[in-house]
Structure formats: C-alpha cells, structure tokens
Amino acid sequence: MAEVHSMTTTAFELAGYKVTKTLGVVRGIVVRSRSVVGNLIASIQIFFGGKISTYTTLCEQAREEAFLQMLAHAGESGANAVIGVRYDATEIAPGVTEVLCYGTAVFVEPSLNK
C-alpha cells in the first residue's frame, strides 16, 4: 500500500491548512459476505436482543479496509490529505454488501493565518 499522510476530514476544508491542489476523487471499495457461522452467531444474538457484535465487527472491518484503500489511492495521486470523506454501503446480493469510502484527494500546506 502506498504511504500517504492520513489527514482526512468529512468537512471540505482542513483547519489550519489551505488546499493548494485538488487531485480528484479517490475511493476504496470492499465487497463482503456474511459467513454461515457468522450468521448463526448473529441469529443467537438477535434472539436475545441487544448489540449484534458479529455484524458490528464485520462492518467495522469492511469500513476500515475501504478507508485504507482510499488513503492508498490518495497517496498514489500525490495527495497529503483527503477532504469530504464519505461512506456508502449497498447490498448487491442477499448477504453480500459493498462498502465504499470516498473523498477528494488534495495537497494542503499550512495556512499562514493560524
């Protein structure tokens, strides 16, 4: 994976920095399925109610992987930051979900107006 500065934000500006170059949209995409064992454990958790840790863990892992892919994509484009970061998830088949993390790759420099 390419090394990239991990300055990211959901905002469209980064406090203390000015965007000097916009490099375009970057993304990371992960497609995951639930395992039979994971579904069985989740079914038991659903039966008793409360937090469904099996699915929570699966979702967090997919989001983290998509985020890291996005950062690698940004690094490959020469960015040192990503602004406007968003996540999207879509069920593309029963039990199969796509997780997308995207944002705008930018090159930023410290703002003189701190």
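the 2nd protein, sequnce then structure:
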Amino acid sequence: MSRARGVFVRSIVGTAALMAMGGLAQAQETLKIGLLATLEGPFAAPGQDGMRGADLALKEKNGMAGGKKIEFVKVSSDATPDKAVNATRKAVEQDKVQIMIGPLSGDEGVAVKNYAKTQPNITFVNGSSGAQSTTLVDPAPNFYRFNTEGAQWMVGLGEHALGKGYKKLYLISEDYGFPYSQVQGFMASYCAKGGKVVDKAWVPLGTKDYASVIAKIPKEVDALLVVLGGSDAVNFLTQYEQAGGDKPMIGGSITVDQTVLNFKGKRRESLLGTASAGPMADSIDTAQWKKFVSDYKANFKDGFPSPSLFAYLYYINTKATLDALDAVKGDLSNGQKAYRDALQKTNFAGPAGVVKIDANRNGVGDTYITEVSKAPDGSFYNKVVKTIPNVSQTLGLSDADFKKMGLGSRDVPDCR
C-alpha cells in the first residue's frame, strides 16, 4: 500500500471512529430532572414513598426517556412553601434541571406554581400536591398536574357518610390549602343533602398535642371528620385512643392512607370500617393496579404493604413526564414548546384509571369511596365500595354553581 493510500485509509477509519464515539455520546446524553418531595417534617414518610413512586416510573423506562439517560436531582422540603421554593430554586438555578417534578403538599404546590412563572423555559410537573387553587386560580402555563386534586378526591364521600347515618359531624383538620380543598369536596354535597358540620377545629401543620381539640369534641355528634395526614394523623389517633375516644370517623384522603393505616395501637382496630375517598384504593381489581402493586413490592422491600397515595401520584406524574419526552424524542428546544404540547395530549391507562388533564393542566379522573378493611395477613387496606367516574374541578356542579360557592377555605362551605 502506498504511503498516500495508507494515510487516506487511516483518515477514513479515524473519522468513522469519531462518528461512532459521537453517536455513542449522543445516545448516552444525560437529561437532569429535578425531583422534590418532603423528606423532613410531618410528611417525611409520605415523601419517601413519593420518591419510590417516581423511581419506579423511571425504572420501567430502564432509566431512559426521549433517547436520553435520565438523572433525578433529588431535593427535599419540609411541607412549608418557603422550603419547597428554595429547594426548587436550587435544582433549577444551580443544578440546571430542565424539568422539575414536585412538590408533595398543598401550600407547597401553590408556591412552586408561582415560582414556575419566573422560569418560563422550565417545565414543572406536580408531585402529589392537591390544593385546589394551584391550577384553578391564576395557573402557570408551564405547571402541569396529572393527578386530580384534594376537593375532587372527596366527591361522593358526603353522601356515603349520610348513608351511614352520620348527620352531625365535628371537623378536625390541618389549617392550610390542601385540607381546605378536601373539606370543600366533602361538604359541598354533604351540606346540600342535609348534613351538618357543627364546628371546625383547624390545627397547625405539625401539631403534636391534640388534648385541647379532643376535649372540645361535642358529645352529640355522630362522627368525626378527620382531615389530617402523616405524623399529625398518627398523633391524633394515638391521643384520641388514650383519651378513651369512641366516635366513628370519616377520613380525608391521607388520614387512612398506607402511610398512616399500619401504625401500632389499639385505636388501629377501631379504624376498621372508616370511610374515606381518594384517586386510588388498595383493592382496585384491575390488571394495571395489580401490576403496579406487584412491581412496587418487588422493588421496595422497605415500602408499605401496598403503595401509598403518594407513591401512586408521584408515579403517574413522573410517567407522564417521561412519556411526553418519548413522544418528542427528547426535544426541549424552542422554550420546550413541542414537549408541552405533548404533555397536554398525554393520556394513558394508569394503575387507577385513565390519566389526562384539562385546559388548566389539571387532572380529570375517577374518585374511589373506600372503607378500611383487614387482610388475611393482618395488614389494613382501603376497600373500594363505590367509584365516582370522571370527576372535574367543578365537583359535578355547573360552572355557575361552583363559582357561587367559591374556593374552599376555613369558612367555605359552611353548614352548621
């Protein structure tokens, strides 16, 4: 071979090698996605399970989406808006994530939505936060919530409570956005059909001592409406047991969730039959749900007997995030326009029903009315007693009637 021909051949081989290496590098390009959950404070256990749900969605994709390797940049909050925004800001402005998933809690969601407006080139997808106003009042065009919210989760539970003979209730609830939504979703139909909430006890998030609240529970009420979650719910249940409380309860969506259900104590047995409602239930009898539960148990030996609400919500929001990346082959150019168009069109059969969003980028889906039951192995779970299909943010009311009622708050609705 002549010297000139040898140089030519080596040049061709070298160019091919560089092209191959370039193709490999492109195939292994890493996309950073921020992942925020509460790993501190009263919702630490729910936050850990939310992370499990997100991890499971990514594992199902073999760590890839849109032709890119996905790296979660995990950050933590403590259920307070300021901490949630600071953690989100770190992920966006320092770690340079291009997509942000989270947060977990209601007021955090409102705060992160407002921060999203200052970062128009970043797409924000909810974790599990369920305050109604996040997407219903001054929504951010780059904030997407594929789960239904707290008020939607309680639709139909008021009628169920009346059917159990609970005509007078006493409310004990945390004092922030998500419980306001939960209480509204319950009371909208409960009050309209003759039920009475004789009084309300609003307590700060992270309350440890419930003695004064328990002492004020009226004797004449039929049951308690308890809208507490995480360690707050466990603290109340434990102290109510110690005080000899015997009123039956109606629970908020996270009051008898898996993160609370299996706490130890005598009061735990009295939870059997407790009605609640939410966007999922432990006993859903579909192939999709059974696979989700099986995969969760196989991957997380330190998890709960069944995936919590938080694992489920982080899972569907993360799956939507990744599916849309696949749809646009990882294209985040032009202010992520194509990606956001794909998010808006996202529609898939999730573990607990179809996952889709409305014009405000908020979930529309089924609500499950449940009652606490005991499995043969002694674990507690929420058994489906009724399904309310396709619940929107107007809670089954006309737009005019919903606007007349207004957003949920300490005093809305009221039916003393």
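The chain has two domains: 30-148+285-365, 152-284+366-405. Residues 152-284+366-405 form a domain with the Rossmann fold fold (CATH 3.40.50.2300).
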